[in-house]
Amino acid sequence: MAEHAKETEETRVQDAPRSRRDVQVDWRRAKDRSVGLLAGIVRWAGLIFAAILVLHVIFVVGSANPGNGIVSWVRGWAGTFSIGFADIFEPADPKLRVLVNFGLAALFWLVVSGVLARIIRRIGGLGS
Question: What is the DSSP letter of 110?
Answer without folding.
Answer: H
